[in-house]
Amino acid sequence: MRTIGQAAAELGVETHVLRHWEEVGALAVLRDSHGYRIYDDQALEQARTVLKLRRVGLSLPEVIAAMAPKKHAAQAVVRAKIAALEQEVVGMQQAITFLQHTVECRHRYLDECPACERFVRAT
User: Fold this and answer.
1) Which residues, in sequence order, are CB contacts of 85 under 8 Å at separation 6+?
2) What one-character-per-residue DSSP string does 71-89 give?
3) How far is it, in rounded angstroms, from Cα 64 to Cα 71?
4) pTM over 0.85
5) Residue 74 has what pLDDT?
6) Which of helix, strand or coil describes residue 49?
7) Cβ neighbours of residue 27 closer than 8 Å, sequence gap 6 or more
């Protein structure tokens, strides 16, 4: 059993983050006889899962849905996030391609370059 401070330190987050996760329903925490939060191994593991899902880009509503008891609903949220991340990767790759071209471009100004013009018009 851990206090909220101990759990937060172990997870590397602030205590207000754990309180917020509990308030929005992303985390279930036990209370002692005085009403203080106590984090058992299960609550800590749940918090680790929330933290990992947040770090890979899910919003808290998405985290809650991804942790839903119904696997089909959880998978739908995760699939949607995968698709969004794949789109971000495509966009980043296009940005890298454009920037690499601008570094190697033989034209003094980008607006003199037909290839740069095509990149600009494509976005």
Assistant:
1) 57
2) HHHHHHHHHHHHHHHHHHH
3) 12
4) no
5) 87
6) helix
7) 18, 21, 43, 46, 47, 50
The domain ranges of the chain are 1-58, 68-123
What's the pLDDT score for residue 123? Answer: 58
User: H or E stretch including 91?
Assistant: helix 71-104
Q: Using an 8 Å Cβ cutoff, are 10 and 2 in contact?
A: yes
Is it the case that residue 102 has pLDDT exceeding 90? no
The correct CATH number of 1-58 out of 1.25.40.890, 1.10.8.60, 3.30.413.10, 1.10.1660.10 is 1.10.1660.10
Task: Kindly compute the dihedral angle of the four CA atoms of residues 84, 60, 12, 52, in this order, to the nearest 10 degrees.
Answer: -40
Whether the CB-CB separation of 47 and 37 falls below 8 Å is answered with: no
